[in-house]
Every structure is written in C-alpha cells, then in structure tokens.
C-alpha cells in the first residue's frame, strides 16, 4: 500500500511537474544573427539588428531594425518593440562596431550585455566596419542569403585565406583585460555593391580606441607571428626591385609557420629576437624574365630576404603605433618578470623602444607540377 | 544485527572508490578556478598539488584509525570510547556539518539549474524534481549509492573530454613565471583546494562496508587521484583560456569554458553538460545526507530514518519556498562555514588517528 502510494507520487511528479516555464516557439522568436552598434550625430548609440524571419506570409527573409538608445539593453528593448517577436541574442553570429564608435567610445563596457547573460553566444565574431553599417544591409549580399549567415561565411573564409583574424566576443574581453597585449578585431568595408574584409583593426589597450588597420598582406604576416594560421595560408610576396621595372611576384601556400620569440635584456634595454620558420609550396610565380639558372635555392633566398624586410616593417609599424597585438609582452612577463613588474602599466611604451631582430627561414617544399 | 545488515550492504573496492570520488567532485569543479584567483594567479596549480598531498595524508590517517576497529563506523567507535554524552555531542557536530554541506550543495544545485538552464521556472518546482532521486538514494543505503556512483561514472566520464575541445590556439606562457605572487598566498589558497577534496572523510562511514578492507588505503588514494585529475584539468584549462582578471569576474568559470565549445550539431553545450552534471551533484548530496541520517540514527537509537529524512526535506522545501537563497548568499555562508569546518575536520582526523589509530592496539587484539 505504502509502496504503491510512493510509486504514485513519483509517477505524478515526473509526469506532471515538468518545467514548461521556459518554452520558446520558433515562430514567436526573431533570433538576432547580426547586431551592429555605432554612434549617431548627437553621440547617442545606434543599434542595428538583423535576423531571419520564419513567417510564411511575409515576403522578406530577414528583418532589419535600427534603434537609438543609451545602452545596448535599452536599444534591444526598443528594437523589440519594433519587431514581431522576441529579439534574443542567443544565436548571435556577428557583432559589428562602426568605426565612428571605435574612434569616440570605449566598446568594452557595452559588451557587458553579452558577457552577463548566460544565454548569449559569446562565440560571435566582432568586426569593425569602415563605413556605414546600414550599407551592409543594402548591398547586394542580401541576394546571397541572410546577412548573418553570409557575413559569418565571408569572415570565416577570409580567416582561412589569411587576410584577417577572427576575434570572438570572449576573446576580445580577454585581449582587452590582458596587459601583455592590445586588442585587435577584423575589419570590413561595405560599399554599394558588396562587403570586403579588408584586414585587421588594431585597438588601443586602455580604451579600445581605433589606432590603425593592417591590410590583407600585413594580416597574413601577422597570423604567422601569432602562430595562428589555418593551412594553407596564401602569402603574397613582391620580389620586384623598385628601380628596375620588372614584375616578379611570388605567392606562397604556407603549410607550416612557426614563430619563436626570445628576448635578451641589458639593463632597461630589451632586444626581442623573432625567428619565423615557414615551410611552403610555391603557389604562383609571375616573372617577366625567367631565370631558370637561379634554381629553387636562389629563389628561396630572395624570398627569405624579402620576408625578413616585410616582417621587420610590420613590427616597426606596430612599434611606432605603440600597440602590441602580437603579445610580445607575454614573453617579457614570462621570462623577465622583475623587469615586467616595473613596466607593466606602460608596456606598449616600453615596446616601442625595444630593439627587434627578425630572422626568417623559408623552405620551399614543392613547386607544383612544373619546375622552378 | 548491525553486522548482518552490513553484510547485506557490502560494497566492492570499485564501488568504494567511486563513492568517495563522486562525493568529492561537486560544486568545486565549477568554481575552483575562480576561488583560486582570489588568492593567487596561475600558481594555483601548486596549491592544488599541496591540497592533494594533505588530503592523501589525512585519508591514510582515516583508514589507519578505522583499521583498528573493523566492522564499526566512526559513530559507533565514538560511542564505544566516549559514551553517550560526549560521543553524542561529537556525532551531533558531524550530523550538523554533513547536513550543512548537503544543504549547501542541494540549494546551490537548484539555483545553478535555475540560472543556467531554466531561468523562468520556480525554484520549488525544480526542488520537487530533484527530491525524488536524492530521497531514493539516501533511503536505500550504501550499496545502492555505490552502484549509482558507478553508474554516474559511466555516464559522465566523457565530460572531461569535452573540456579539452576548447584547447586550440592556447598559450602556455600564462604559467610563467611559476611564482607570481608569493608562497604565503599559495598556502592560503590551499584552504580552498583542500575543501574541493572534501568527501574523502566519508571513508569514516564507508569503511566497514568494504568487502576487502585491506585495500581501503589503495581505494581512497585512487579516489583522491581521480579527483585531482578532474580538478587539475579544469584549473589548467581555465588558466589557459581565460586571464586572471576575467576569472575573477566569473562565478562558474568551468561553465563559461563550455560556452566556448562549438559543435556543429549542438549549441549551448553548457546546458547539456549541466544536465548531466546534476547526477554528479546528486551523488554529492546523497552520501552527505546519508551520513547525517546515520548519525541521527545512532543518537536517537532508531532503526528507521524516514522521519528524519522527512524533516530534512521539508526544511529544504521551506527554505527554498520562503527564502529562495541566492547564489551569493549561499557562497558567503559556505565560506564562513568552511573555515570552521576545516579546523574541525583537520583536528578531528588528527586526534582520532593519534588516540585511536596509533596508540590503540585495536579492539580485537586488546
């Protein structure tokens, strides 16, 4: 009898006490795939959101809402009142930040919304937009599909090509809070026809303001320095000598790239040794006057010299801008801790005064089905 | 009578190991990385190793004590030596502390589930659902709990592997230099790592049920090592993936870690993970609750624990229904409690070893 009663209670509990407070019907939801934020003329926040619509009656495949507000959450609330269903950011794929915003405001506090809510997808990529965010939704990419999906695919593909680096929201937080490096995000430029990933935006460490951009070529070198390449990475190298007008272009399909960084300290003077080892296939070699006698070793050597100059220039550029997106500071903290403690609050300044020696070692493994 | 009951309830070595191991891993797996960065930076792994060694030492003390009194739980031993008055008092402290730990884990489980999985569902409803398995486990006794522990191990051993999915593009330089704060803070942090190993002390209760008592030392050391494996992996991966400032902001770093895993067929992995982790949390509540009930049994000299269980569950329900304590409150209370508990448990194990384990020749031979 008692056993029966108990069994009944258990059965009752498991069947009827199901938790249905959190159900969410797809039809009633307008999941946001893309969120964009920029500042308006009166320094107010403008939030753009876009996501797919699953309604059968409607003609359009996605919605696009623009709202003005003072915080992200408020903007989202206002955006909600403009859309049919509930706008949630749990399916967020792309977070766009206008360059105007990056120039005038610190973005990090506004990300609080994503970091606080356990439901948001913090794997969404942050992309800086060089231009107007609105243009993206009016360009022809709409024809290719829903903007959230298209933008994500474009960003991912450019990362695989080596023309940008992807920074998810969680990664941005980490970069921003880390004193040993400065944050960076990918950059996108819309025009009336299409959107192009143009490279990497470098941000200042203290307030995440815009500093400068790296173009596609520099981005590929940057990826090699960061040891974050997706193989094969295509690395264009210009071997033409500036005085003689002879075209000589090489494109390497990098299979492996490893940068080793070591440092040497002499009092307050720091020397960073950067050793980059690249092993690659020859993808393309455009040469007006062919030198078969040069052989693969000769070419390898010329590439080596040019790459060394390229890397040196890139790092010089970072030094003059006083940003350290590569994270040389990590090495300083790890191997020169007492020195690090004295400079940890102004690492980027100290970095700009460092001496940097780059050494590259390129090995060409294959030349395709033709020689040389 | 008791002997016969014990024979019916015998557990094998693997059940003994799993019972202790699954009791040990509980809430601390979710929070330990953050607890550590409150005191230290990446040296937390050293604190963890020190905590592990202290746990091992104390575990051996426990087994050595119990070896001298075969067939008895610590409650019976206490009563045997100290009589009803003082014996009951110490048992009452034990009942209080095990009940307290069980309550904290239980209430936190409800809150975590509510926070991460079902924010719009009421706490009391969740509690009503969780009550069923815990009640059944506690009532059935040690053998069933041992089997359940094995079952839980079987269905949750993949979970650690999932954490390793986050490991790409990580930077081992985070761990250098080895000592970033000071040895003093490393030792202070040991208090929280030692608390994460809590659960090994239930060997005081489980020991007499073990079929091969000679292998008890081996068993408890295996359990501690398995726990170390989990905690170490979690802490190291968190240090690799997040930086210290970030970790300080997170309440449950391990769940944040899972948010980073992206599988093509599954979103919000942490929800899936947490749902399975509920089994593990139940396996922390049940043994502690069982121990508390066992203590009550020997104080009140009653055979049935139904009434005490009923009182405990009603209290829990009332607390959740009326107060609905937040995670912050629970953590604060737990912190205060842990300080007292560490002192009590440490001195209890040491004193019992000195008086009952080392100097006594044991009940059988005296």
**Which value, in Å, is the CA radius of gyration of chain B?**
20 Å
Work out the helix count of chain A: 12
Bin the helical content of chain A. 25-40%
Order of helices and strands of chain B: HHHHHHHHHHHHHHHH
| Largest binding interface between chains | A-B, 30 and 33 residues
Characterize the biggest β-sheet of chain B: none
Overall form of chain B: globular
* Biggest beta sheet attributes of chain A: 8 strands, mixed
Strand content of chain A: 25-35%
Structural class of chain B: mainly alpha
Describe the protein's topology.
The complex is a heterodimer of chains A (372) and B (366).
Chain A: H1 2-16, E1 34-39, E2 45-52, E3 62-69, H2 72-80, E4 94-98, H3 99-104, H4 112-116, E5 125-129, H5 133-138, H6 147-161, H7 169-177, E6 184-190, E7 195-203, E8 210-214, H8 216-226, E9 233-238, E10 248-266, E11 269-287, H9 295-321, H10 328-335, H11 337-343, H12 347-353, E12 355-366
Parallel strand pairs in A: 1-4, 4-5, 5-6, 11-12
Antiparallel strand pairs in A: 1-2, 2-3, 6-7, 7-8, 9-10, 10-11
Chain B: H1 2-8, H2 13-24, H3 27-37, H4 44-67, H5 74-116, H6 123-140, H7 142-156, H8 158-164, H9 183-196, H10 203-206, H11 216-241, H12 244-249, H13 253-259, H14 269-300, H15 306-323, H16 327-358
Helix pairs in contact in B: 2-7, 2-11, 2-14, 3-9, 3-11, 4-9, 4-11, 4-16, 5-6, 5-14, 5-16, 6-14, 6-15, 7-14, 13-14
